[in-house]
Write a structure and sequence with these properties.
Layout lengths: L15 H51 L11 E2 L17 H10 L3 E12 L8 E2 L9 E12 L5 E11 L23 E4 L9 E2 L5 E4 L3 E5 L6 E15 L2 E18 L8 H4 L5 E3 L4 E3 L16 E2 L9 H7 L28 E3 L5 E3 L7 E11 L2 E5 L4 E7 L4 E3 L2 E3 L8 H15 L13 H6 L10 E3 L11 E7 L4 H12 L13 H5 L5 E5 L5 E4 L5 E3 L17 E3 L3 E10 L24 E10 L8 E7 L6 E6 L5 E4 L8 E4 L6 E8 L3 E2 L2 E4 H5 L4 E3 L2 E3 L9 E4 L1 E3 L1 E8 L2 E2 L1 E7 L7 E9 L4 E8 L5 E2 L1 E10 L2 E10 L3
Parallel strand pairs: 22-29, 30-45
Antiparallel strand pairs: 1-2, 2-3, 2-4, 4-5, 6-11, 7-8, 8-10, 9-10, 10-11, 11-14, 11-17, 12-13, 15-16, 17-18, 19-23, 20-21, 23-24, 25-28, 26-27, 28-29, 30-33, 31-32, 31-34, 34-44, 35-40, 36-39, 37-38, 40-46, 41-42, 41-45, 43-44, 47-48
Helix pairs in contact: 1-2
Length: about 800
């Protein structure tokens, strides 16, 4: 019998407590999900609003940038849309829609935008930029535009979003937005766009193929810093471009610099090998400048001479290339730097160099081993490198009629240095008629350029510039224009011959074409504004006062060169003169005695403008001011208290005292006012004294600078402050006390009164250095250079208190 064992069984289920706990957990989760959903909705709405506001700020910034750098107003105010019931500005097509439509579309209670523009600039040599400092014309600058949007959401919450953008003076304007690519044109090189080069003082020459050529106004190459800068060369660009309204597409750009140099045979032998190798000239090939390569290959003529820059002379760094390369050989059939030079009196080869004697006379250099000589070169950037190019030759120079202005209801002639429209048209006609004579058969220029210029209709006007009465502030300006064409080497001549022979319907000079349209695109010509480069002289200096400072001023409408005013009733010419070769274009305020460079370079061309000064404001007597000591370029003004307090500026032609040409009758009492008689010149001091607690760095790491090595002394920027210590006319001293106005630094002026100023007399003024001068700059930071195991002072950042 089988027995079955009975087992107990318990029924299963949820208790009421367990159910209640589950309900609580589920409810908590559902509530969290609901809160999350609401948060996601709010965040999405806020992101949508921020996105819309960000798009508005971006569009507004693009709009502000599109007006161009020069039109970007500084420190503008706040643009707001006050939101009160019944006064909301709708999205209705007015000027504030960029704001109104955004507020409406985003459903905001209010939306304000603060718009501010500041200018930032930096002085030369500074390590940072300063906000809201008005920059000089040649100083770096940029504008910073800030947009800040503020709004309230539906819950009353406050929000902000900002956008900042910097605008460069070199940035492209709205007119330069690139058009779509021409899909049918295929590939090609990069497109370079810029503002139209045809700015004030520039005359573009149409090339006949839709392009134009223009040379920028010459500007100086400077060495030194701030007011201690010196001009050591002349820079300009020649652009070939396709004009398009205010914009242009650049086809070719030739960067030119013309320099005067003090050289020494053998001085280049100490340079690294890469800088020692003399080069052949850069020549025009018919389409571009390229370094000449002789066939068979041969070293350049300068290779055996090892010439280099003379040490201790303040000059352009590019003088290394000029001194090293600018030597010609007697070998026929090779390119030369000065191919049109002939053998002058006293020469045997026509390749002689000249040095400056102690009597400032030019003589042939006696040897080519270690002797000094002077030189003038044109350097052009070729494939990124500066190359000494073949010399530029002036084919013609002349004056163009300048603009008149209405002042006090009277039309006054020659009140700006800008050519009139009629003069520009006439000059362009002359250039084309002259250049079309080039046919590639000869290397030299066609003759008769000056006669063709003079015979061009409307070119020699006005026949007379009239000045109503002598007036030392009624300035008149002229415009000197020069045409330069290179000597044509074989490649350039072959190119011209080929172009003129290509007369087919699709050729480069189809039958029936204007010859100038065929020739000009393949000629190396430059039409340059020489107003600041020419020498200007009054034929009757008692009638006209003419400025010939060669300061390369940056405003072509009011140039420094050619500036004229009437001193006395009468007639006089203002004559402009330029030399025909390189040295006639180069300006150098350091090597001033090297103007001639060599006797073969002194052929000049000139043009004169007659003036008639009328009126009877006195006899126009004058006196002079000679200054000894003090700064390099003091300014002098005079006041003679007769004839309505006659006053004016005492101009100083090169190498002479300040000339005070009055409209008055002397003798008379009067006064002179002097300013700008300070100077900035470095002072040498020891590294220990100069560094103080400043720690120099080398590759970012602090180092201890050598104090007893070859660089123990360093040059510290310094301000030299002067005062008028004596002033007299003959035996009569100026009346004491001399009146000093200013802070003792750059803005200081001194006035000296005289009881009697005789006609033709000279006021002798002595300037002496003040106690406590020079004022040295303080070092802010510095970097070091390494030589072996020693570190030496390298570059410093200075705080100049003046």
């Amino acid at each position: 019998m089988i027995r079955l064992k009975s087992t107990g069984y318990r029924s299963r289920g949820f208790s009421l407590l367990e159910v209640m706990i589950a309900v609580v957990v589920l409810a908590t989760g559902l509530l969290a999900l609901a809160a999350l959903q609401g948060s996601l909705t709010r965040s999405s709405a806020e992101a949508k609003v921020r996105g819309r506001v960000a798009a508005m700020l971006s569009a507004r910034m693009d709009e502000l940038r599109s007006v161009g750098y020069g039109n970007a107003a500084l420190n503008t105010g706040t643009v707001t849309t006050p939101i009160t019931l019944g006064t909301i500005d709708p999205c209705d097509g007015d000027a504030t829609d960029w704001l109104d439509c955004t507020r409406t579309q985003a459903g905001l209670g209010s939306l304000d935008v603060t718009q501010v523009t500041h200018i930032w600039s930096s002085i030369a040599g500074a390590s940072n930029f300063t906000e809201d400092r008005v920059p000089a014309a040649d100083e770096p600058e940029f504008k910073r535009v800030s947009l800040t949007a503020s709004w309230t959401d539906a819950t009353g919450g406050n929000h902000q979003l900002a956008s900042v953008s910097d605008m460069s003076f070199l940035g492209l304007s709205a007119s330069l937005i690139p058009p779509p690519d021409d899909e049918a044109s295929g590939g090609g090189g990069p497109t370079v766009r810029t503002t139209n080069p045809a700015t004030a003082g520039v005359i573009p020459i149409a090339l006949g193929n839709g392009e134009s050529s223009a040379a920028s106004n010459p500007t100086p190459e400077l060495v030194g810093s701030q007011s201690n800068q010196k001009i050591v060369g002349t820079k300009f660009n020649v652009l070939t471009y396709t004009p398009s309204g205010n914009a242009a597409i650049i086809q070719r750009r030739f960067e030119n610099e013309v320099i005067k140099c003090s050289c020494q045979y053998g001085a280049g032998s100490t340079l690294p090998a890469i800088y020692q190798t003399a080069q052949w000239p850069a020549i025009w090939t018919g389409e571009r400048y390229d370094l000449y390569k002789p066939n068979p290959v041969a070293p350049a003529p300068g290779q055996a001479l090892s010439s280099g820059r003379k040490s201790g002379v303040e000059q352009s760094p590019l003088c290394q290339e000029c001194c090293r390369d600018h030597h010609d050989t007697s070998t026929a059939g090779v390119a030369k730097f000065d191919p049109e030079r002939t053998i002058a009196t006293g020469e045997t080869t026509g390749r002689e160099k000249y040095y400056l004697t102690n009597q400032n006379a030019l003589q042939i250099t006696p040897n080519t081993t270690n002797f000094d000589y002077v030189n003038a070169c044109r350097v052009i950037r070729v494939d990124g490198f500066w190359r000494t190019a073949s010399d530029m030759y002036s084919r013609q120079f002349g004056l163009l009629e300048t603009e008149s202005r209405v002042e006090g209801g009277v039309t006054k002639q020659a009140k700006t240095g800008l050519p009139t429209t009629a003069a520009t048209v006439a000059y362009t006609t002359f250039v084309k008629n002259y250049l079309k004579q080039y046919d590639g058969t000869v290397a030299t220029a066609p003759t008769g350029a000056q006669a063709l210029f003079d015979g061009t209709t409307g070119i020699n006007v006005p026949s007379l510039v009239t000045i109503d009465a002598p007036n030392t502030t009624d300035y008149r300006y002229l415009h000197g224009r020069g045409l330069y064409v290179d000597y044509l080497e074989a490649k350039a001549r072959t190119k011209l011959v080929d172009v003129l022979a290509d007369t087919g319907a699709q050729g480069r000079c189809p039958t029936g074409s204007n010859i100038e349209d065929c020739v000009l695109p393949y000629l190396p010509f430059t039409s340059a504004n020489l107003t600041e480069i020419a020498t200007w002289i009054a034929s009757v200096p008692t009638v006209l006062v003419v400025n010939s400072g060669n300061l390369l001023a940056t405003d072509p409408s009011q140039p420094s060169g050619s500036r004229t005013y009437g001193r006395l009733s009468g007639t006089s010419n203002n004559t402009a003169t330029v030399r025909q070769s390189n040295s006639g274009v180069a300006i150098n305020t350091v090597l001033t005695t090297l103007d001639g460079v060599d006797p073969t370079d002194n052929t000049t061309v000139n043009d004169a403008q007659p003036f008639q000064v009328s009126g009877s404001l006195g006899t126009g007597d004058d006196f002079f001011v000679r200054i000894s000591g003090g700064g390099l370029n003091p300014f002098v003004f005079y006041t003679v208290p007769i004839l309505g307090a006659d006053s004016g500026e005492c101009l100083k032609p090169a190498g002479s005292p300040h000339d005070c040409g009055t409209n008055s009758t002397l003798p008379s009492s009067g006064s002179i006012s002097l300013s700008h008689y300070w100077s900035e010149a470095p002072v040498s001091t020891s590294t220990t004294t100069t560094l103080g607690s400043i720690q120099c760095t080398y590759n970012g790491s602090p180092v201890t600078v050598q104090t007893n090595g070859q660089n123990a002394n360093i040059d510290v920027p310094a301000f030299h402050n002067y005062y008028v210590s004596a002033a007299s006319i003959g035996a009569t001293p100026g009346l004491l006390p001399y009146t000093v106005v200013g802070d003792g630094l750059k803005t200081e002026t001194t006035s000296v009164s005289f009881a009697l100023i005789p006609n033709g007399s000279t006021a002798q003024v002595t300037l002496s250095e003040q106690s406590g001068s020079p004022i040295l700059a303080t070092l802010v930071s510095c970097t070091a250079t390494q030589q072996g195991n020693n570190y030496y002072f390298g570059v410093g950042t200075w705080n100049q208190s003046w």
